[in-house]
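<context>
A single protein, sequence plus fold
<entry> Chain with its tokenised backbone below
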Amino acid sequence: MTRDGALGLVSEGVRLLDGYRRGDFFFASGTQTVLGYDAADVLSQADPERLVAQVDAALAKRRAPVAVGVLPYDTTNGAVPARIMLPQYVHFAGPVHPSAAALPNRALEPCLGVSPVPEPEGYLASVAEAVRSLRAGELRKVVLARALQLTFAETIGAEGILSNLVKDNAHGYTFAADLPPRAGDAQRTLIGSSPELLLSRTGTDVISHPLAGSAPRSPDPATDRANAESLLDSAKDQVEHALVIDAVTEILGPFCRNLAVPAEPSLTSTSTMWHLGTRVTGELIDPDVSALTLATRLHPTPAICGTPRQAAREAIEQLEPFDRNYYAGIVGWCDAAGDGQWAIAIRCADVEDRALRLFAGAGIVEGSEPDLELAETSAKFQTLLRAMGLDLEL
């Protein structure tokens, strides 16, 4: 792909991946690939309702063909704003797979060191404390995350990480989005491959595909199938999943007619994990309700926060020794017609100069066992670690 300033369709998603440069916006799903670059403007707004109004106004005035970017996990305190870019140029193509499977693995800079935040023992203690709160009736579910801080000798190649992620993840939503710099001029990028669709809208058709309940994949086919079947049979994971689906349908219900919710979850897989998923579909009553509007109403779901929402937020603030910022936020795009796709920003890393922070979380319910939740987060880290060619004991 050449950057000739032309807006239009590009036939091959791999060409868009090849054209990505750090600072661009990239988003690949199972149906299409999007690349936006050269910002006409950037909207940085903490309040989601004001953000939606600003995006709608900008698109109505045709200041850009689409709006793309990322919203933070916590949109309530104003400390971390959304970053929405209005690109001058955007290209759409079909899905990047199956062609991307033939891409070569990109070599990345050597990793100098890894620091868990918290240490595994600290995470086990946090899960145990959360279970005590659950058993006391203070919560029904809370999602607890941990992080890995990686350092490198040279500036990290975001393009290489993204290419390797796309190659290794044929399903889901692989993305790269610029973030506001923390201090000085160091560029930050959120890169990941999320398995979870928060909300898509095409015309009046809406889809949400929440995931909750997880098990690791195995290279041994028999073990892999046993892990999947055990997940389907797990009462603990079924409860965790039902809490998410109840919340999603309660929020989408007033916006939709003919909201279809399967009675039982089904298995969804990535290269590293099995998940329980439920594909919720509906038809909008009001065709003027945009994908971004619906996404901000849904976010954060119990899949990445917990329930009740406020009590879960407070527990996360007390038990997680870091700020999530854009981890567990939402990433995606929307256009002037209101169509778009927004995924939950998980299986991701915040990349800054020579440092990279990975995140992984697990849903904690009353039946959770700390050792198993720690193992689940370790398995989820593998999505990014594989993309960087790292094999670490976690």
